[in-house]
Each structure stands twice: as C-alpha cells, then as structure tokens.
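G., the chain you wanted modeled:
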Amino acid sequence: MTELFISAFITLFVVIDPPGCAPIYAGLTKNAPPIMARNMALRATAIASIILLFFALFGEELLGALHIQLDSFRIAGGLMLFWIAFEMVFEKRQQRREERAEKVRATPEFEDVSVFPMAMPMLAGPGAIAAIMLLQNEANSTEETLAVMAALGAVLLIAALALVAAGPLIRLLGDRVEAVITRLLGVLLAALAAQYVIDGLKGSFGI
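Predicted structure as tokens:
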C-alpha cells in the first residue's frame, strides 16, 4: 500500500505539476485583488478535484460502456504521459501553457480563470485523467484505493498551496530552478509512462 501511495503521489505530482502551474497562475492573476486570487485558486483546485475524483471512481465503467479494454487504455495513457514527459524535458509544455495563458489575458471576458484554464486543462488535464484512472485500476483493495485517493488529495493540496502562494513562490524559486525541477520530473514521468505501455502490451498479447 505504501509503494502504491508513493507511486501514485509521484505520478500525479509530475503530471499535475503544481510548481509549473504556479507561475502561470501568478501571471493570470497579477492584477486581481489578493482575496479574489486566493478564492480563484481554491475554486480551481476544488473543481479539478471533482473532475479527477469522477474519473477515478467511474472511469473504468466509462471505458466498459465504450467497449475499450483496460490494456488498450494503459498503452494510450502511457503514450500520452510519455509525450507530456517529453514536453517537460524540452520545455514545450510550459511554453504551450504560457501561450494559452496569454490568450486568456488578452481576452477581457475571462476574468475568473478558476474553471478555464486553471481547473481544466492545467490541473485536471487529459494526462491527469489518464493517470488517475490507471492508478485506480492498480488498487486491488479498499486500502489501496484509499492510498490512491490520499495521494491525489495530497497533490491537489500542494497545488492549492502553490497557487495561493504563486507570487512569493516564483520569486523564491526563480526561472532556472523551476526549469531544472521540471526537467528532472519529466525524466521520472517518462520512466513511469514506459512501464504503463509495457504492462499494457503484456496484457494485450498475453506475454
């Protein structure tokens, strides 16, 4: 159970990437009153929690209704996570996030960024949804399910704290430190993604 918690925590932390979301949020809310910025951060995290919890609990039933085998989803999810890892290592993901945030800033009607782009797709994006569904499938007991949920809760709590403290956090870390951390997490995610693909191929071909 401890191993599953650690694996789930690392996977979700890397995919959701609270340190990477913080500077984007800081840029989106730099002109907002502190109370409004804090409330939007908490609202974004709450909405992302509901989305990810839904897919964690009902994702497998959804796959069944669509007649998609879990091993196929493992392969697809692993490839998706590997692509995210590739973008993290080569800083493509952060660049895309910044471009999306710039579009939001340039559009006056998007004053509240808690739903878009923060809750989805930045916190509860396709990679996070795939990751939580794959992790939930690895849980073979109530205790292991609780371990995955605890890992998700811990990562989202860190994400909420990172968003609330986005401004000071960016000044503390700096761009270079953040870039190094992102690359290291990307390499780790690539290894985890490769394992999902291997497990999916083994299950599909009975290896």
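The chain has one domain: 2-205.

Shout if anything looks off.
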